[in-house]
Amino acid sequence: MIRFITRWCALGFMVCAVVPPAGAQVPARKPLQATSHVASAPKAEIRGVVEDDKGEPLAGAVVSALGATTTLAVADAEGRFVLRNLTPGTYLLRAHLQGYAPIKSRTIQASTTERSEYVLSLTRTAAPEGPAVLTAGVGGGGSSDSPAEHDHDERAWRLRHAKRSVLKDASQGIAALEDESSFSDSLQRLGRSSARLASALFADRTLNGQINILTTTAFDRPQDLFGLNASEPQAVAYVSLVAPGRDGMWLMKGTITQGDLSSWIVSGSYRRASEATHAYEAGLFYSAQRYLGANTDALQAMTNGSRTVGAMYAYDSWSLSPRVQVGYGAQYARYDYLETPSLFSPRASVTIQPVAGEPLRVRALVSRRESAPGAHEFTPSSTGLWLPPERTFSQISRAAFRPERLDHVEFAAEREWSGVFVLGFRAFHQKVGDQVVTMFGLALPDSARGVGHYHVGSAGDFQAQGWGVSVSRAMTDGIRASVDYTQANTQWLRYSDDAVVLASFVPTALRSHERIHDVTATVDSVVAPSATRLFVVYKVNSAFARAHESLAGSLASARFNVQVNQALPFISLANASWEMLAAVSNLFGDDPLDGSVYEQSMVVRPPKRILGGVTVKF
Fold first, then answer.
1. Which residue, 18, 113, 448, 467, has fewest beta-carbon neighbours within 10 Å?
2. Does the domain at residues 208-617 carry the CATH identifier 2.40.170?
3. Taking the CB of residue 565, how many other CB atoms lie within 10 A of it?
């Protein structure tokens, strides 16, 4: 294995070194990330300057962009800011600085080909005469004797007419308890003080948000949309709140759906600015699923008809020098439907720029990932839309659920030429235990058949080694395309206890030795005049597992994802940006680069999912 990695690393360095550099004007790209394809995702930038109403630069102003990606930057001494590594599309741009009135958010288009600069002007506000009062629990406000300056909603009225003890400092709350004659009044004041402390976390911060009102359904064949085999359409509500600050941002997200399958996901995290020496992120999420339908298979697999999953994580990217970065972190998750519910997934990486000023990055990555069967239903998406648990699942052999364990070692290199081409190379080794097999549409005895329920099992253990190359190129008119090719040789070491059942229903899930070829093409297009974004992913793989049934007429050997976002600039309500969203996909999960080489291949007959709705960004 050491000889294999050394040989491919040497070849990668030779390929990257023999091509002449583009010149000093090429900016260095962001270091490779552990969960993203090398050079496969086109990125955009937003540049500009923040100034006051007299045209003077405002240093330290916080600028945030809310859209497909949420990020922030702090203006430098000249008032300039740069928001990097953005997914192309529509964004709400805002600026905030204490002592200045926040401006009305601007709707802009971020493109990989255009580099426009924007000017954001802030107006100084008059200093308040009295202590600041938080009127909504988020952000700062000023108290005034003029009733015309107050909001007139119910919450504002209650705050203005509350007992004066609510406005006391939190430090006075405990001491003042001694003077209370009623124990219940003391508890009330303590609660108010705690609420004031909690709201102070977001004082002097703007609050950005996004609301998605979506409808989703799934089908196996197009004609099933008019039959009984399609899943019942579900309404999905998604809310995201971002509170940016000088050093980082707080992110709060939640999504919920109701019906026979009621489910929700909530998360909270703090992400430090990427320009910091320690660009860390820490957070947690919690997800729950409750089934009230009539599928006996699903009811038997659930304890009390419900499942819950929770996780906490922390990752840090430590810049030892401008040319060396060290990444490390871990996630701890707990799945209540596993016999051993606790799963731990650490990872570490080193990214080096071998030559100063050269747009070349080299990375070494070591990770261990433990994931439960059906984890895609509960884990928030890292790259796509947030959807709550949509389907139920059960074990194919009626045995206990077994988590998949993946040990991954990788060496990768990436280089950019002339700001147009990006070439990436990687070599990797994997060892996987209890590879998960996901099966849709199986006609098992005494089991309901449909796209709303699927079965999972374990194929066994294997090891794989392989390599991959990727090419990404910026086209004209806001179009960027990329192609990823991966080749891997796998050797199966052991079959699991589910092998007998799998041999009867999905015999192609049981392998011995094989060579896998995978080609993934991605096109990301932003049409600026119409504010339309089209994102397409098409994946062809030689190892897709098939069931016994005839799959003639279906794209069994290919997976796809098509998503269209259309801005609605003619709708201008409440200082918000509106978009229409439509998507169709049969990809199952995020398919991260450091996942198993069978991540998508061991998903049998995944249904097509249709998603549509409205996105509101404010």
1. 18
2. yes
3. 20
